[in-house]
Automatic annotation (TrEMBL):
Zinc fingers (C3H1-type) by residue: 112-134
Record carries keyword Zinc: yes
InterPro entries: ARTD-AVP, Znf_CCCH
GO molecular function (one): NAD+-protein mono-ADP-ribosyltransferase activity
GO cellular component: nucleus
Keywords: Metal-binding, Zinc, Zinc-finger
Domain named C3H1-type: residues: 112-134
Name the record gives this protein: Zinc finger CCCH-type antiviral protein 1-like
Tree of life domain: Eukaryota
Gene: Zc3hav1l
């Protein structure tokens, strides 16, 4: 029975994290009351309020006797502790700004604005509480730096992690062009995702430039071999992020295309009954469509997951694209004798086909947006989300 009791204490052997956070009040605690950063040989404090002694505390001495390890060398015990030492999750200190004297003694929590960590601080830059955890100009900033150094930041909730930039988010330099992104605040995160969207243009070009649209027949007009060029030449004019939940980033981007061109095969067949005979006339052409500056919006949700091993994955869902075309102009390019006479009379066919093109756009807007959405969604999933996950590696 005595051996079983010893084994029970040995199995429970570890560092009490409730003690490290200043809230272990139980007399039946089976873990050692010792500074976990001392155990990891990483305590940055010259004067630490937590114990750095394994055997000099009555609570610890009692546990070591129960495990029959009271005669073990300190270094042997420290090595055993390091194997199972898992630092506590970072939390925001609630006493720092709620009491005139601030928090007292040893504090393992962050000194910052809690509403900012949730992404909804209504005071913004005017807030009197700390938003910048990188600041080391005052004692609170240096306190946060010490807290961040040893905390397992990958175990924090995803949205606060993104908001605060509590880790070396820029360590993954393989995400092109984002080495100078500041992910320490929502504005910095917006800039980073905006840059990743711009860098995804080659993927869009690979998937959908030219954008192939299905053949279409509307009455006497038959359109085929429809190709839209320039879908990958977009610019991201603006981007904002919000946080609907702890693991989600809602992205809304304004995208514009300076020019989009299209080419297609067109056939118009008109038939008319003359006396008792049906007479049909066909006209073929390869019209060129030019669209003025096009503005659209892209919305998507990035889902952030932190695994037990600290690995971060990002997936995209609910991607939507809305397009608002400016002017659509068509050059008819009719062939044969009819094309010759059309050019001779000032190209009236182009005016007619321009009207038809605008009418066709009104009917097929949803289909084109769906095609554009598929292309951009694939770019978001395979480029933006993957590179963002790399940036969030700790």
């Amino acid at each position: 029975m005595e051996e079983l009791r010893k084994q029970e204490y040995r199995n429970a052997f570890g560092v009490c994290m409730r003690y490290n956070l200043g809230r272990c009040a139980t007399t039946r605690c089976t873990r050692l009351h010792i500074c976990y950063r001392y155990v990891l040989d990483d305590c940055p404090l010259e004067v630490c309020n937590l114990s750095h002694k394994l055997k000099g505390v009555s609570h610890n001495a009692k546990l070591l006797r129960a495990a029959d390890w009271s005669t073990e060398p300190d270094m042997t015990l420290l090595l055993k502790l390091r194997e199972s030492c898992s630092p506590p999750k970072p939390e925001v200190c609630k006493m720092m700004f709620s009491r005139p004297s601030g928090c007292e003694g040893h504090c393992m929590r962050l000194h910052c604005c809690e509403q900012f960590t949730r992404g909804n601080c209504r005071y913004g830059d005017k807030c009197k509480l700390i938003h910048d955890l990188h600041d080391d100009e005052d004692e609170d900033g240096r306190h946060n730096q010490r807290t961040r150094v040893t905390a397992p930041l990958s175990t924090m909730r995803a949205a606060p992690l993104l908001l605060l930039g509590l880790a070396a988010l820029l360590a993954a330099g393989d995400a092109q062009g984002t080495a100078n992104c500041d992910l320490g605040d929502p504005a910095g995160l917006s800039d980073c995702i905006k840059q990743l969207l711009v860098e995804a243009r080659p993927k869009v070009a690979q998937e959908a430039d030219p954008l192939r649209l299905p053949n279409n027949r509307d009455g006497d007009v038959e359109l085929s071999n429809i190709r839209v060029h320039g879908i990958s030449g977009y610019s991201v004019d603006g981007l904002s992020v919000s946080f609907p939940s702890d693991q989600q980033i809602a992205v809304r981007a304004t995208i514009s295309w300076p020019h989009i061109n299209g080419k297609l095969d067109a056939k118009i067949r008109k038939c008319k009954k003359v006396i008792f005979k049906k007479v049909c006339v066909s006209v073929r052409g390869r019209p060129e469509v030019r669209v003025g500056r096009t503005v659209g919006s892209l919305t998507t949700t990035l889902n952030v997951h932190v695994g037990a091993d600290g690995r971060i994955t990002v997936t995209a869902s609910g991607t939507r694209v809305s397009l608002n075309l400016a002017s659509i102009r068509v050059k008819a390019n009719l062939r044969g004798a009819i094309g010759f006479f059309n050019r001779l009379f000032g190209d009236p066919a182009s005016k007619i086909t321009t009207k038809l093109a605008n009418k066709w756009w009104g009917k097929n807007k949803g289909k084109i947006e769906g095609k554009a959405r598929d292309a951009l969604d694939k770019a978001v999933r395979e480029k933006v989300a993957v590179h963002l996950a790399q940036l969030l590696k700790i």
